[in-house]
Specification:
Strand 1, helix 1 (15-27) and strand 2 (32-36) form a beta-alpha-beta unit. By secondary structure, the chain is an alpha/beta fold. The chain is 45% helix and 12% strand. Strands 3-2-1-6-4-7-5 form a 7-stranded parallel sheet. Helix 1 (15-27) runs parallel beside helix 2.
Length: 243
């Protein structure tokens, strides 16, 4: 699905912005970059600012017109800070756009089009689009760098994709946060109960106290590593009890 989403940059003036845009794309799983008449490409500045996303630059397609860049796309969304008089459907919120883009990208190519750094897209280029989208910003200072705009729309697109069941996206979790198995938790509870008896904290079985402690640790949701530390602490205390 993400491979069907194309980022199109029209007549980018600063090659560094191409590299920064490639980096923004790759962080969101997008790799399909098309450049329409870039002023200077390939370029060392683009490569430098792409950092680890030089593979996106190496696969980038350079074309001479926006029509060539989007002719096979079923949806073409032009990013524009200025509303034109052209009666195109307009997305006020990027997340609304992303939902539709992801839906259309399921079976066919779609394109997100970004214009020149200073002047954006021309009216003729907007006519190549099927939709427009704006990024809500401070009305007194709504200026975004090209790569920033790419990052925001790429993020919203990735967000809409990962929320789909079919995405099979896995959120990163530290290994230390792995929860303990039920068996490990039961062993900890047994160990704690035994130590409470041996230490004299409980002189006889007291189900209510053990239930309260079980509830406490269940609510705390200790990780597997944290539970292991608690078992070690109990063992250390146990070793100092009279035999």
């Amino acid at each position: 699905m993400l491979s069907n989403i194309r980022i199109v940059l029209v007549q980018t003036f600063h090659p560094g912005n191409i590299g920064a845009a490639a980096r923004a794309m790759k962080t969101m799983g997008l790799t399909n970059l098309v450049l329409v008449n870039p002023r200077c490409f390939p370029d060392e500045e683009a490569t430098r600012l792409a950092a680890g996303a030089t593979d996106v630059l190496e696969k980038a397609l350079v074309v001479t017109s926006l029509e060539d860049a989007v002719q096979d796309c079923v949806q073409v969304v032009g990013a524009s800070a200025r509303l034109r008089s052209l009666p195109l459907p307009h997305f006020d919120e990027p997340d609304d756009m992303a939902e539709q883009v992801i839906s259309n990208a399921t079976n066919a190519p779609v394109a997100l089009v970004f214009g020149r750094e200073r002047s954006g897209l021309t009216n003729d280029e907007i006519r190549c689009c099927t939709h427009q989208v704006s990024i809500p910003a401070n009305p007194e200072y709504g200026i975004l760098n090209l790569s920033q705009a790419v990052q925001i729309l790429a993020y919203e697109t990735h967000r809409a994709w990962r929320k789909r069941d079919a995405s099979d996206f896995s959120y990163q979790r530290p290994l230390e946060a792995t929860p303990p198995s039920r068996e490990q938790f039961v062993h900890f509870q047994d160990h704690l109960g035994r130590l409470m008896q041996q230490s004299g904290f409980l002189t006889q079985p007291h189900a209510r106290t053990e239930e309260q402690l079980q509830t406490l640790f269940s609510r705390a949701q200790p990780s597997r590593k944290e539970l292991s530390l608690l078992r070690g602490l109990l063992s250390a205390f146990e070793a100092h009890l009279p035999k």
